[in-house]
Write a structure and sequence with these properties.
The termini are far apart. Helices cover 91% and strands 0% of the residues. It has one helix at residues 2-42.
């Protein structure tokens, strides 16, 4: 019984970390792409 509860908590914890990290990395990637495009568009050549 204790092993089942521990396994469930471990799985839930890992899923939460991966989901939140994935969303944060996706948002950061989009931000970097948009920021680089804006800087290149405003910078004179």
């Amino acid at each position: 019984m204790l092993l089942t509860v521990f396994s469930a908590q471990l799985g839930f914890g890992l899923t939460s970390i991966v989901r939140n990290s994935g969303a944060a990395l996706g948002i950061a990637l989009v931000y970097v792409v948009v920021a680089q495009t804006a800087v290149r568009a405003m910078r004179p050549r």
